[in-house]
Amino acid sequence: MKFVDEFRDADKAHALAARIAALCEPGRQYKLMEVCGGHTHTIYKHGLEDYLPEQVTLVHGPGCPVCVIPMGRVDDAMALASEPDVIMTSFGDMMRVPGSNGSFFDAKARGTDIRMVYSPLDSLKIARQNPDKRVVFMAIGFETTAPSTAMTVLRAAAEGLTNFSIFCNHVTIIPAIKAILDSPDLRLDGFIGPGHVSTVIGCRPYEFIARDYGKPVVVAGFEPLDILQSIYLLMLQLASGEATVENQYSRVVPWDGNPVALRAIGQTMELRPYFEWRGLGFISHSALKVREEFARFDAETLFPVPGVRVADPKACQCGEVLKGVLKPWECKVFGTACTPETPIGTCMVSPEGACAAYYNYGRLTRQRVREASTS
Amino acid sequence: MTAPHDSPASAGWVEEALREHEKQARYEQTRDEQLLGEREGTRFEHRGSPQPLPGTVREELVLERIDRARRARPRVKEDRITMSHGAGGKATQTLIEAIFLDTFRNPLLEPLEDAARLAVSGVRLAMTTDSYVVKPLFFPGGDIGDLAVNGTVNDLSMAGAVPAYLSAGFILEEGFPVADLARIAASMQAAAARAGVQVVTGDTKVVEKGKADGCYINTAGLGLIEHDIDLGVALARPGDVILVSGPIGDHGITIMLARGELDIEADISSDTAPLNGLVASLLAAAPGVRALRDATRGGVATILNEIAAAASVGVVVTEDDIPVRAQVRGASELLGIDPMYVACEGRLVAVVSPEDAGQALTALRAHPLGADAAAIGVVTAGPAGIVQLKTAFGGTRIVDLLVGDPLPRIC
Fold first, then answer.
1. Residue A71: its chain B contacts at CB < 8 A?
2. Which residues 6+ apart lie within 8 Å of A43 measured at CB?
């Protein structure tokens, strides 16, 4: 398939892998974090880790927007969905994220009207078709999906829709990266920057990572060769002792981002003072809410939202796993209380989370290591 | 950092899970110490607090714990049926094993094959049943009628039987157009004629408007087993070759697009077709066929997992060798789903002994419904129960059962 196969060429991958291996200093371990869940998905889907030398480890970061939504927010969404005449709309991958009383799927099974949509604009269609219902869109995601939510609100305003609102859970990536960088037990050497988010915010916001923390950042695309090349670029920087922000995904990401999208977000949403992240706790200025001018589209204004906090269980060590301090199997509840069927923490929620991946595939990886050490 | 000072509530199920965890941890600590003692050939001594175990040993113990959990008796944790229970993945399997198999348990049901194989007064029969709730009822390449006939014909064929008789049960919603019903019946008859079977008994129920979605159909089928080839996924052995009879995922993608919710158009139609003719020529040419499955709900990936689990073998397939139409691949890329999990309605997966694999592939390709058949992988001695995919990119990944429906991803 054109524009896909070119970025999955195994010969080029072998060449890149050899260069990456050549850059490894003996005895040094390299921990690189791919911030974005989309990258984690690519890494697993194509088996990219097979190309990496043993010294290079990828740490799966906090960039899976459904995984970082805390249980309390899921509970709030459920409460909204059970208000009279409400139709809740949600992206598909939000459907299985557990709150304290099950997931959207469970709520749907109990008779709540929750519908899966591919685009927030589909919610407007549902609102138009059901004038006697109140449609609430469960808005989630980083700066990647925030513009489409913003455009949807603007469209609803232009059309004068009165039965549509959003439950805004949009989060911003920079404060999350900063929270990880500020943790005293940080063990990361560099970052594979989130490509989709950067199409909106550009590369400039990452400059502080290189400047203030001395860690290289390479904004990467989502095909396997994109990621492999980004790892190579990070290794080059690490070998020369440099730390700068590079843009590997320049075919899509403009250095200054997308001003139209940023304007739309700015017009409809503003920063919350703080927001809770599953696994990372409260982070200042890390999420967006609907601006007062658009309060008529803000479900948090229109409906009573319980706002009950559900604490991450103390035993859950997602934060440490996210920061690369602990391996999944070192977490206290891993594999007993926390499993893919009953995920407690963010790392187990999504199949791409570090813990879910290890739960499913760890046995095989371990076996490979054993085979390699005996052969 | 600012944080609110309200006292957080806690989720009941989490607490319960944590209590279970504590219990398990206490049990395991004693057990692990024992294990470690056996392994190291030394006695593990308590001096006040437990001594930390070496990292690799601890990791092994965690992995063993996961393995035990995987082998544990399946238990349905939800208190209500969710859509995941019908998606063909792990949740469906758990439901079937924990509720139905446990209740109805008998040697004929236990293999959980597509059709049960029975003998009545010396005559060997295969029997199966299947319900059809597809939406939309009419789609490019077919409709619920021919789907209901072909699906049951195929389930019988996978048991190595020659399909003969079908039943047809209809659940109709008040207000359903009679013209549509006539069209569905006509297409069932056409499909039955094509497959050489007869619909010999039936049932009709009408439910109030809103209690069903237009028309649901159940078909059951009887077929005759006329050869001595023993078939079953548990018979797969290391070295066997895995064949697929044509491009995968056509039906599932066609249905997704036909629902019209995605605003994607593609020139593609369902592969719904009766496979009895194809199976007959395959079995005639290659007696070394060990197992046949039609890759319906859950797709080829689910079948491969069933093979790996039932026979305690490994399965390794090569992405480059798996036939997928460009339209299916394109739509899957756009929607963020994997064609390996997408349903087919006219494709079979065959496990064949290495000696007969060549003939089997030739026989499949000689039939119009198997023209694009391909060898996609092999059965290996291990790791048992695991399906691995060699990606076109040159890596390896595990192809696991899905927990529920393949969900579109946003990131």
1. 11
2. A34, A49, A58, A224, A227
